[in-house]
Write a structure and sequence with these properties.
GO terms for molecular function: monosaccharide transmembrane transporter activity; symporter activity. About 75% of the residues lie in helices and about 0% in strands. Helix 6 packs antiparallel against helix 11, helix 9 runs antiparallel to helix 21 and helix 19 packs antiparallel against helix 20. The longest helix has 30 residues. It has a single domain, classed as MFS general substrate transporter like domains (Growth Hormone, Chain: A, Up-down Bundle).
Length: about 500
């Protein structure tokens, strides 16, 4: 259907280079953007379950949570749009800022964009930690959203362009590993700070400043990618950087590909318009579908609101945060597994396997809750253990597939002339649906109850079928020769071939 293919030009076979220490350290530094993204995802759910935080900013939710007599089921105790806005405001700010990030990424480089992201994270963490009212709290979340928009725009591109083709998947997965470590650390922090009366939530929100500071300071010393330097007319410097990161002087083949790609890129004055060309239809479809599918797995809902979900299922406050720490650890394990396997087994196999695992887990959870849980009482101990294990298997399925590959695949499929524009679409679509799900999830949980798991299971099944038929394998393919993937595909090749003879650029 859509498996491997033979690369067109033989030039890729002449590429030399290895995963040098310089590449690894640079990629780890850039992946701190993932750690900040993960920390901000993980920290909000735990903070919103803390009584001191609720009393100060959301007293209505606190009153409903602790009401001895209430007509609300456990599913509905946190159904509050202002509380949801605390979480989702970050992502609407990220959505808006990613268009500015697309410009800076192309015009000034990936490195400058990463620096802007680090500075925004620093400001946002400071505002949230010192928040005196709900408005200051939301402004802080908005600044964190700017950091997410700039970081998610630049970091995946940076990692893809710095890594040698044969190790690109594993090195690019450091972004997802850092994201999961950020989530795991956030859960640990929340578990500890819940016991600090009065200001524990401030510490949880403020600790985001630590990786933000490291990211900003490190960004002052790393090199720009060769692709970006050459694209912006600094070819000699680009070749010098390429020589350093590949660990060899024999980089002429790769340098020639980059020069040819940059010549095409410089003829494109309107990259977003060029993205609409028929020959770029496959990449445009993936730029929309892959980030939508990643969100519709339901993972962000579980990560945002893990303590809330566990409390909605009748877990106590301590037990819910403890369960969140456990699932965060599973995310880290899954990301490590993917780093080891992605360049051996490829993207398609992992995405398909992960989709099957996630959908099965969600369906079983829905069946168990429908049969044994009415929403008015706590789960039995046995059922609590089973549900926690199923959620962990679901998280493992996500972490080994859509978690990282939802970012890796889009970052490596675009030609250089539309790469920044394409990544901007990916990030903006991801953040738009993240915002929508984050804002709607608590109401959906209240209205659908156990049906929320069936909702996400449907989409996991659909996306697995989509990948099987429409996503070609991109393992080991140099970025500048990715066009031959689409030409060889049974379906997408029709679009590329139809437009191939037309060399006019928009």
């Amino acid at each position: 259907m859509a498996g491997s293919f033979a690369i067109g030009p033989a030039r890729a076979a002449q590429y030399e280079g290895r995963a040098t220490v310089f590449v690894v350290l640079t990629c780890l530094l850039a992946a701190l953007g993932g750690a900040l993204f993960g920390y901000d995802i993980g920290i909000s759910g735990g903070v919103t379950s803390m009584d001191d935080f609720l009393v100060k900013f959301f007293p209505d939710v606190y009153a409903k949570k602790h009401a001895e007599e209430s007509n609300d089921s456990h599913y509905c105790k946190y159904d509050n749009q202002k509380l949801a806005a605390f979480t989702s405001s970050l992502y609407i700010a990220g959505l808006i800022s990613t268009f500015g990030a697309s410009y800076t990424t192309r015009a000034y480089g990936r490195r400058i964009t990463i620096l802007i992201a680090g500075a925004s994270f620093l400001i946002g963490a400071g505002l949230d930690a010192g928040a005196a009212d709900i408005y200051m709290l939301i402004v802080g979340r908005l600044m964190l959203g700017v950091g997410v928009g700039f970081g998610n725009q630049a970091v995946p591109l940076y990692l893809s362009e710095m890594a040698p083709p044969q190790w690109r998947g594993g090195l690019n997965m450091t972004f997802q590993l850092a994201t999961t470590l950020g989530i795991f650390f956030a859960n640990l922090v929340n578990y500890g700070t819940q016991h600090i009366r009065g200001w524990g939530w401030r510490l949880s929100l403020g600790l985001a400043a630590v990786p933000a500071f490291i990211m900003f300071m490190g960004g002052l010393f790393v090199y720009e990618t060769p692709n970006s330097l050459i694209e912006r007319g600094q070819s000699e410097k680009g070749k010098l950087v390429l020589t350093k990161i590949r660990g060899t002087d024999n980089v002429q083949a790769e340098f020639t590909d980059l020069m040819e790609a940059s010549q095409v890129a410089r003829t494109v004055t309107h990259p977003f318009a060029n993205l609409l060309r028929k020959r770029n239809r496959p990449q445009l479809v993936m730029a929309f579908c892959l980030p939508i599918f990643q969100i519709l797995t339901g993972i962000n809902s579980i990560l945002f609101y893990a303590p809330v979900i566990f409390q909605a299922l009748g877990f106590g406050s301590n037990a819910s945060l403890y369960s969140s720490v456990f699932t965060g650890g599973v995310m880290v394990l899954g990301s490590i597994i993917t780093i080891v396997t992605v360049d051996r087994f490829g993207r398609r196999l992992l995405l398909i396997t992960g989709g099957v695992v996630m959908s099965v887990c969600q369906v079983i959870i829905a069946i168990l809750l429908a049969k044994f849980y009415s929403g008015d009482e706590a789960l039995s101990k046995g059922l609590s253990i089973i549900v926690t294990l199923l959620i962990c298997f679901f998280v493992l399925g996500f972490a080994t597939s859509w978690g990282g590959l939802g970012w890796v695949v889009p970052s490596e499929i675009f030609p250089l002339e539309i790469r920044s524009a394409g990544q901007s679409v990916v990030v903006s679509v991801n953040l738009l649906f993240t915002f929508a799900i984050a804002q709607a999830f608590l109401s959906m949980l209240c209205g659908l109850k156990y049906g929320i798991f069936l909702f996400f299971a449907f989409w996991e099944t659909f996306m697995t079928i989509f990948v099987y038929f429409l996503l070609p394998e991109t393992k080991d393919v140099p970025l500048e020769e990715m066009i031959y993937v689409w030409k060889a595909h049974w379906f997408w090749g029709k679009f590329v071939a139809a437009d191939h003879a037309d060399s006019e650029k928009v």
